[in-house]
Every structure is written in structure tokens, then in C-alpha cells.
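Dear colleague,

Thank you for sharing your sequence with our group. We've completed the structure prediction you requested, and as agreed, I am returning the results in plain text so they can be pasted directly into your records. Please verify that the sequence below matches your submission; if there's any discrepancy, let me know and we will rerun it promptly.
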Amino acid sequence: MDRQIQQKKWNRKRILTVAGITALVLLIGGSYYFTSGKSRLNVDTERTTISEIKKGSFQEFIPVNGVVLPVTTIYLDAMEGGRVEEKFVEDGAMMKKGQPILRLSNTDLELQLANQETQVFNVLTQMQISKNNAEQNSINRQNQDAEVDNALKEAERVYNLNKKLYADRVIGSQEFNSSKNLYEYQVRRKKLTEDIMKTDATSMKQQVSQMGESYEQMKKTLALMRKKVGDLVVRAPVDGQLTSLDAEIGESKNKGQRLGQLDVMSGFKVRVDVDEHYISRIFTGLKGDADIAGKNYPLEIKKVYTQVTNGRFQVDMEFVGAAPKNIRRGQTVQIHLTLSDETQAVLLPKGGFYQQTGGNWIFKVGENGNVAYKVDIQLGRQNPDYYEVLQGLKPGDKVITNSYENYGDMQELILKK
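Please find the predicted C-alpha cells below.
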């Protein structure tokens, strides 16, 4: 009797068929999962920087570098051109007011001085001669006036006597008229002499006055010429330290050429370079501080130079209170320049993400910590450490702040440990 053989339900062909169908379903499902909706990227948490949003004190400031300079610097220029004959001190010397620094020679100036002195001497000699002539002329006029006065008195005496004798018929009319005419002549002569003396006196006074003015003017010119020759010796205008002395023996210097400078050591300032982006927010009175030798020193802007060169402009800041003891000219100082008052704000730590997002969005870590998704944000002010968050994040949120350069256009990041 035949026996019925039962077929196996799961033969090899069926198993392969079911496996193929299952794989196809999984492939289709996975493809749908990864190609529909948001794009995702697996990232290693050890290569990410996760920062927490906090609320705290915020103050906007920028780090700037400055160079220490004396508060007052006086430039030494050649008042007169000449050849450097002698140097009395070297660069860096401490100077007292009036102390000589170097001596120039200028033969043209020295010759002009000699000619001016000769002219003044000649004018003085001419004035003395004129004065002597005036005195001699005055004496002669006085003698002449005395003679005229004496002749007038004699003519008056004779006239009065003849007048009486003529009335008594002692003398004739001819003799009387002769004495009368002589008297009237002497009267006119006396008046003419007085007028001449007055005119001579006025003329001589004007002449002496004019020569005196000319002499005084020439004396002033001579004094000016002597000063110009004296300026060939360059002296310190104030107490201070001589720096940047640029002169060597035998070198020729033109009038107005820079010879060096004198730093007044009464205090120091810091000349700071600032990016032109902040030019509208920088003004005198703005505060800052510098850490020098482990101690904080406050500073204040005293002057703003609005000229922009290579994208930067300069300001002068002075120490508020005592300056550091060991500070030196030319020393570089880093300053925190404050742009706003201290306020409370939501703070986002700075990071490389800003270069790719421009501060418009960021990857925010979900509550489970396994995924980070893109959220829009709005940032305000900033300082070297933080951004001020205006919208999109709240204290306690966690965000990825490292560079997004390798994330492409991903919408979500799967955080893998």
C-alpha cells in the first residue's frame, strides 16, 4: 500500500522569496524615511560643542590694541637750515628747558647778521652826527637871536631918545626917521629870527624822531637776525626726554626739517586703533580698562581722530587716576573699550556657527539630547564672549555652537555618543 508523502511548507525557494520581499519592503521604507521630510546627519557628540543659554549681566565692549605715548609731545624742527656742527646729547637723554641739543652752522645767516650790525652802527653814527649838528645849529641860532635881540634893544633905545629930542626940536626929522626905520627893521628881524628858530626846532625834532624810529626798527631787525642765528643752536623748549633724534655731524638740514621730538614725562596716553565699523559709536568720554602687570587700570577717551586709514581710525585714551609705574613709551596695551552700560540679557556663547548662519539660525538640542534641529533666532549686541539673544532661545536651552562647515544643508543632527 502506497504511503502519502507530505511536502515541507518552508522550502528554500519560499524562504528566499520571503526574505527578498522583506528586504525590498525595508529598503522602500528606509528610502521613504530618509528621503521624505527633514534631512538628517549623524554626528559624533565628542566632536561638537554644546553650550547652554543663560541669563546674566551683559556689557558690550570690543578688544582693541593701543600704543603708550606721552600725554604731550613737542616736535623739534630746524628753525633755520644749516650744517650739523656739534651734538651735545644723544637720543633718549633727559633734558632741562633751555639745554642745548645740537648746533648748526649757516654762513649766509652769519654774514647777514654782520651786515645788519654794520647798518645799525652806521645809523647810530649818523644819528650822533645829526644830533651834534642840531646842537651846533641851535647854539648858532641862539647866538644870532642874542645879537638880534641886542640890536633891537639898541635900536629901540635910540628911537625912543630921538623921538623925545625930535619933539623938543633938538634933532631934525631925517635923523629921527633913520632911527625909526632902524627900530622897525630890528623888530621885523627879531620876529623873523624867532620864526626861523621855531621852524628849525620843529624840523630838527621831526628829523631826530624819524631817525630814532629808523634806529629802533633796525634794532628790532638786528634782534630778529640775532635770534635767527641763535636758533642755529637747537635747545629743549621744556623739560622732557629727547626721542627720535635724527641728526649726524656734517649732515645738512633744511629749514623746517624734523630733527627729533621731546616727550613731556608728566603723564601717558594710549593711542588706540579702532575698526571703522564702530566710528559712529565712539566719542570722547567713553570708558575702557586695561590689564597691565596683573592690575586693572581704567581709561577714558580724550580725543577722536575721525580720519580713516586702511579701515581703521585712532583715538587717544588717558588713564583715569595714576598710570602704571613701570609703563614705557611704545609699549603695546590691550584695552577693553566699553560701548554700553551693563544690563541683564539672555546670553549665547560665541562659536564658529556664526560664520555659516550669520546669526539667523542655530541647531538647538532636543530635550532627550539625541537630536538637534534648526531653529530661527535673532541676535543683538555682542562682545568677545557672548551674543545677546533677542528672540528664538530662552535660558536653559542647549545649542550647538561649533562650526557648521561640515553639516551642509542638514535640517537635523542625530547625536551619537
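Summary note from our side: Helices lie at 12-35, 107-167, 173-230, 353-357.

Kind regards,
the structure core
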